[in-house]
Design a protein that fits this description.
It contains ten helices and 16 strands. By secondary structure, it is an alpha/beta fold.
Length: about 525
């Protein structure tokens, strides 16, 4: 009996051992499969093969074959002028457009591609053209946008680091002293500009009206002018008997607008290269100073936020305390005390709704007009300001022109009428509301503008309103920028022109046309004004 039991137990143990071994083998195989599967899901994206990389390079090479290349963009500042030089590898066809509010010169270079080493945004310390932006607009077009409302001249020159240069002259050179020889400098005189248009109508240029000099070392037989008659006498020729300087005796000239006509091509290039290096040095210095100022402003902003937080806590603490007779403050008393700390009572504020009447301003993809958006925001802002105790002066409350001449008024007369409203009312600050627009529908964001030669209070006002506005409508920031706009240049008080968003962008157009967007925009401007007076 015992033998049979032991024998059965032995057989049971043997069977159990075999089963355990089989399960362990199955588990190991499953685990290995799972690890292999998981490893496959975590692999990085397969890298392109050498053939694929070669094919991609060949595709880019094929696409850019025969196209001109923009190698660099540089500039120099003269007396009343700015010269922008675009280094290109060959001649390019260009198309010029003019945009308003803000004033911009747009230049499309056809069959051209932009080198990725070129700075896409260049800041210039000049009111004539504060900024240059460059981008690959499409596969065969490079677009340059220059912030300026000055007259321009565009022409090409041989030579330079890339083999050819596209030159953009902006502004009007200041007259030379009478004692200066006429042959030492040849200034190009732009024609007078016509009265600015109320709408953003791109202007066309006629390249044929500007002769192209063959060599920079030789004076042109015809002065480079726009829509002006040729002089009857070639003033670039030196009269007989007047001695000329040899190359070794030539003085150093830092201004590229005043290079002596007797310089050789090589010496002229050396001077231009020297100017370029000095300009780069100035730009690096300005960039460091700008970064330093931004850090200081950020530090001041944080300290101010901390101070406001401390004041808020102190107000809360006071609202919870009791009066001298042991009674708690009533809700009315608390509200009264809070209003006394944040109120705009006694402040006089001018609100300008951009465009209006016969001037629709920019128009969005679905037909929303800028003049309608600015008026809606201005009226909502007026209501909020009055609730805070401010006195509000509106340049317009309906879809009308501000000038007494109505539709017969010129653009300058209309802008002057808006400034007159604020100046005669002796307001504390002036706010002009606009919506931005660009040919590329992807452009988006909010910008604050102030007069570049105005007071520091104008810059502070523009910056605070832009920041508060962005917090409300959640648009990208395009910064606070100097400008030369009429309404901020000709007002007697701190003034700013704010571009709420891009009405040319479908998403931002929808935001600006919504009730929620209008109210948030008005609230953001109010917050910025309260920060300014706070």
């Amino acid at each position: 009996m015992v033998k049979r039991m032991l024998s059965a137990l032995f057989i049971f143990l043997m069977v159990l051992t075999v089963i355990t071994t089989v399960e362990a083998a199955d588990d190991g195989e499953s685990t290995e499969e799972i690890q292999t599967f998981e490893g496959a899901t975590e692999d990085e994206e397969p890298q392109p093969t050498e053939d694929e990389e070669q094919s991609e390079k060949q595709s880019f090479s094929d696409r850019t074959a025969g196209m001109a290349q923009v190698k660099a963009i540089r500039y120099s500042i003269g007396k009343g002028t700015v010269r922008i030089v675009v280094d290109i590898t060959k001649h390019v066809e260009n198309k010029v457009m003019r945009l308003k509010e803000p004033s911009r010169l747009v230049l499309d270079l056809k069959d051209t591609w932009l080198d990725n080493t070129v700075d896409k945004t260049i800041e210039i310390k000049s009111t004539i053209a504060p900024q240059i932006r460059a981008a690959q607009f499409d596969k065969t077009t490079v677009r340059l946008v220059v912030s300026t409302d000055e007259e321009h001249k565009i022409f090409e020159l041989d030579g330079g680091p890339a083999g050819r240069r596209l030159v953009i002259d902006l502004g009007t050179p200041e007259p030379e002293p009478p004692s200066k020889p006429a042959a030492s400098s040849k200034t190009e005189t732009p024609s007078k500009t016509a009265a600015p248009s109320k709408t953003e109508t791109p202007s066309k240029t006629e390249p044929s009206s500007e002769p192209e000099p063959e060599k920079i070392s030789e004076p042109s037989k015809k002065p480079l002018t726009v829509n002006e008659p040729e002089p009857s006498e070639d003033i670039s020729k030196v009269p007989e008997g007047v001695p000329t300087l040899e190359p070794a005796d030539q003085p150093e000239v830092d201004n590229p607008f005043e290079l002596p006509s007797t310089l050789s091509e090589k010496d002229r290039e050396k001077l231009l290269e020297k100017e370029r290096k000095e300009q780069e040095k100035r730009e690096r210095k300005e960039r460091k100073e700008r970064e330093k100022r931004e850090k200081q402003l950020e530090k001041e902003r944080r300290e101010r936020e901390k101070q406001l937080e401390r004041e808020r806590k102190e107000r809360e603490k006071q609202s919870e305390s009791t009066t001298d007779v042991g009674k708690p403050f009533s809700d009315d008393e608390v509200n009264r005390r809070l209003r006394s700390l944040t109120s705009l009572e006694g402040k006089k504020i001018a609100v300008d709704a951009g465009h209006g009447g016969n001037d629709a301003g920019a128009i969005g993809p679905s037909g929303v007009m800028e003049k309608t958006v600015t008026l809606r925001v201005a009226l909502a802002l007026e209501k909020l300001l009055k609730e805070e105790g401010a006195e509000v002066i509106m340049t317009r409350r309906d879809d009308v022109e501000v000038s007494p001449k109505g539709k017969a008024a010129s653009a300058v007369e209309e802008l002057k009428a808006r400034c007159d409203v604020a100046n005669k009312a002796d307001v504390d600050i002036f706010i002009s509301i606009h919506a931005d627009s660009f040919t590329n529908p992807n452009a988006r964001g909010t910008t604050g503008y102030y007069y570049s030669l105005g007071s520091s209070n104008s810059k502070r006002l523009a910056d605070l309103i832009r920041k508060a506005l962005i917090e409300q409508i959640r648009t990208p920031s395009r910064g606070t920028q100097p400008c030369n706009f009429y309404v901020v240049r000709n007002t007697d008080m701190p003034a700013t022109l704010v571009e709420l968003a891009f009405i040319s962008n479908p998403d931002e157009e929808k935001l600006l046309n919504s009730k929620e967007g209008i109210m948030k925009a008005a609230q953001g401007i109010l917050d910025g004004i309260e920060d300014y007076f706070g």
